[in-house]
User: Fold this.
Amino acid sequence: MFKSIVIAAALFSQGATTRALLKKATKLLDPGGRITVVHVMEEIPSIVVAAVTKEQIVAQRNEVRKKLEALTAGHRGPAVEIDLRSGKPSKQILESAEDNGADLIMIASHKPGLGDYFIGSTASRVVRHANCSVLVSRRFV
Assistant:
């Protein structure tokens, strides 16, 4: 059982993967434990920044937060904290785990393809560099 679980949330597929991870996390959580859902918004490339207004960035961030709140609102179990970050996903997921004192990170991963062996997916980078246990849930789409 775990005291603090960080779930790396993806908003594709209407959040089905994240909801499934929330359900699993509830079963693995110690009584009185906490769940944090982290979502990382990748930074806008510098070449595009000039064309995007601050208001558009704030609006996008607010929209993502609303989606995360809607996603976690239906969760039956302990309260879920939302951690919305910007940057490189693997780095920010690991930092969220450290900041929240996580003893488990849960992350979904697709079935690896040839490109993942050379470049490495976010999940594989999290697994390699995490200071706690990592549960990788496979999605076969």
User: Anything to note?
Assistant: The helical segments are 16-28, 46-49, 54-73, 89-99, 114-118, 122-129. The chain has six helices and five strands.
